[in-house]
């Protein structure tokens, strides 16, 4: 399974590359912003894009939206430090297949990416709790 890593921090990209190096997940490329990801996806044809949210040039949410419009079967998993509800919901609306926080361990990252490729929706438990809270909110009658 081919993975493209998109993050503006070189150290994080190299760390993820190291974590995935001895697995069935092959890192085929790296990008430092969403625009670079849009340029690399048609060339490299990854199965999954691991995408940060806050990046220069083109952020991860907008890049996800564009990628999913062009390649609806492409898996895009957000990997971010953002625990902001709005970021979670915007990423999901843009078509993200998962939302992971960067504080997860190496094994959890690998299993989450495999889950996404298999059609599951990996979401960090803190963010899943925020989703539940949002959906449990009473709605005004319209």
From TrEMBL:
Segments passing through the bilayer: none
Entry's Gene Ontology molecular function annotations: DNA binding
Post-translational modification 4-aspartylphosphate, affected residues: 52
Keywords, alphabetical: DNA-binding, Phosphoprotein, Transcription, Transcription regulation
Lineage: superkingdom: Bacteria
Response regulatory domain mapped to chain residues: 2-117
Function comment: May play the central regulatory role in sporulation. It may be an element of the effector pathway responsible for the activation of sporulation genes in response to nutritional stress. Spo0A may act in concert with spo0H (a sigma factor) to control the expression of some genes that are critical to the sporulation process.
Name this protein carries in UniProt: Stage 0 sporulation protein A homolog
Species whose genome carries this gene: Symbiobacterium thermophilum
Top-level taxonomy: Bacteria, Bacillati, Bacillota, Clostridia, Eubacteriales
């Amino acid at each position: 399974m081919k993975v493209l890593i998109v993050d503006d921090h070189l150290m994080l990209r190299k760390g993820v590359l190291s974590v995935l190096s001895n697995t069935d997940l092959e890192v085929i490329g790296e990008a430092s912003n969403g625009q670079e990801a849009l340029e690399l996806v048609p060339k490299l044809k990854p199965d999954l894009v691991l995408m940060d949210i806050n990046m220069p040039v083109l952020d991860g949410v907008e890049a996800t939206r564009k990628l999913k419009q062009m390649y609806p079967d492409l898996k895009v998993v957000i990997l971010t430090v953002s625990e902001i509800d709005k970021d979670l919901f915007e990423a999901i609306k843009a078509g993200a297949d998962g939302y992971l926080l960067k504080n997860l361990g190496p094994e959890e990252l690998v299993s989450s990416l495999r889950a996404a490729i298999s059609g599951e929706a990996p979401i960090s438990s803190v963010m899943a709790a925020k989703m539940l809270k949002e959906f449990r909110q009473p709605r005004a009658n319209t």
